[in-house]
Specification:
Blueprint (H helix, E strand, L loop, with lengths): L6 E9 L2 H12 L4 E4 L5 E5 L2 E2 L4 E8 L2 E8 L6 H5 L8 E10 L2 H10 L4 E7 L2 E6 L2 H4 L2 E6 L2 H16 L6 E3 L2
Parallel strand pairs: 1-6, 2-11, 7-10
Antiparallel strand pairs: 1-7, 2-5, 3-4, 3-8, 5-6, 8-9, 9-10
């Protein structure tokens, strides 16, 4: 369920082993390097309207015009990842969400909410506000709403630059 005017920039999977999944996708899709960000600390994290910290790591790689994100949750706390896969991803990897970039995260989230799709998660990563909207009833996946802001473009630009310079030798590396 992607609303008109939003631009899909990312497809994301929940995995049970980040490094192994990055190696497998890098080889299969010839994309890389996956840039790892471990044990992310979000500001003001909420899950289903309540404060909630989740221990998770992710990695990102560029595949043409779309970014690939892999997410591994390290604990069993309630989260957007456990909402869909309470016992972890079946088979070690499962599709979870698409990310869209919009001018106003909160206005876009309100549009989804008005259509009956609840906010599953929200928070801030540095200067970047985000929400996850639970659209699983309509499409079987969630939508992550991201801002069309310079900070977002710089972050995603670093992933794109790494892909453009990638020699194919190492499937993943630490971000930064």
């Amino acid at each position: 369920m992607i609303l008109p005017g939003a631009r899909v920039v990312q497809m994301a999977w929940v995995v049970d082993d980040l490094e192994q999944a990055a190696e497998r996708l890098s080889k299969a899709m010839q994309v890389g390097p996956f840039l790892m960000i471990r044990h992310i600390q979000l500001d003001e994290p909420h899950h289903r309207g309540k404060p909630q910290r989740t221990d998770f790591s992710l990695c990102l790689a560029q595949a043409g015009e779309v970014q690939i994100e892999l997410v591994e949750q390290h604990d069993v706390s309630p989260s957007v990842y456990r909402d869909i896969y309470p016992d972890g991803p079946p088979g070690g990897m499962a599709f979870h969400h698409v990310a869209v970039v919009v001018p106003d995260v909160f206005a876009e989230t309100a549009r989804y909410n008005a259509l009956g799709f609840p906010t599953a998660s929200s928070g801030r990563f540095g200067m970047i506000d985000f929400t996850y909207v639970d659209t699983t009833a309509a499409g079987g996946f969630m939508v992550e709403v991201l801002p069309d802001r310079p900070e977002m473009h710089r972050f995603f630009g670093a992933v794109r630059s790494a892909a453009e310079e990638w020699d194919g030798a190492t499937p993943w590396r630490e971000f930064g």
